[in-house]
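INTERNAL AUDIT FORM
Audit reference: QA-55
Scope: verify that the stored structure record matches its stored sequence.
Auditor: D.O.
Record contents follow.
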Amino acid sequence: MKILHVITTLSTGGAEHLMVDLLPRLRDLGNEVEIAVFSCKKTAFYNQLEAAGIKIHGFSETEGVYSYKHIARLKKLMKEFNVVHTHNTACQMFAALVKTKRNILVTTEHSTSTRRRNYRIFWYIDRWMYKQYDKIICIAEPSEKSLRNYIGENFPITTVLNGIDVSRFVNAKAIDLGFPGCKIITMVAGFRYEKDQPTVIRSLKHLPESYHLALVGDGEKRPELEALIAELGLKERVHLLGLRNDVPNILKSSDVIVMSSHREGLSLSNVEGMSSGNPFVASDVEGLREVTKGYGVLFPHGDDKALADVILKLTTDEEYRAEVVRKCQERAMQYDISTMAENYNKVYKELSK
């Protein structure tokens, strides 16, 4: 099969990272796989896909992801492919607008909720859009439940659990992050409202001076995070590491991995953290709860003091820490990327019959 994945960017985020791990495996299953990227600035993910031999169709380095010009570009490109698989709202909508009889249209819902669902007008638009799709894949059961509640039952919705290359994280080597002798708390996520980095930043105020925070990622909320760090007097203890292609090594070099999101679909950073050989801590919200409960440690959503207490226990109680690490790695093995690729391939084959 000729398969085209379509995504807005290859900057930072779970969906973008998924492309790096998933597309080469789909190719190895006997498919011709390429990717279209609306905003095609060279990033670590872009370079990794290119190095893996995946052909990248970059639409523009300067235009926004909702530029109407992308519609014509996508229409022309889609004519060459049997399966077109979209990610993110702009891609979903534009592909729905230009779908042809040749195309099998598939999309992945990467979150349990979006702000657009709060506005009734988008309900009408989204229902029309989803009706153009032959299969709608959710990354976890909470995502499927949320989508069905939003658009109704008469849609071809299924769940394929997200996955990562577990071996990359298990076998990664620790590196020097530049602040020796410190306890290192790490969070890997785009700097967006949904990820709630402020909670993990505030948790440092309840921890000893030797505890430092490494934030991997970038995004629209960076100026606000920098202002909060300055306001709390934490410039020497919070380190903004930017976009990195050595995340497995950073996680291996850490003491505790945290995800403090307001909401998630099925967070790849969640599974990556659980694979790292360090304890994983997450806010008790839908999307994180389902993967973490009974394996990692949950803390009340938005409660920075409770988060600090959990971190302190994990870094002072060796027996407790070892048990949490063991359970986290056990859980991570259930989300290996090879299983996900095989399940995606099954979906494509069934739709192609």
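Auditor finding: record pair retrieved intact. The CA atoms of residues 39 and 335 lie 29 Å apart.
Action required: none
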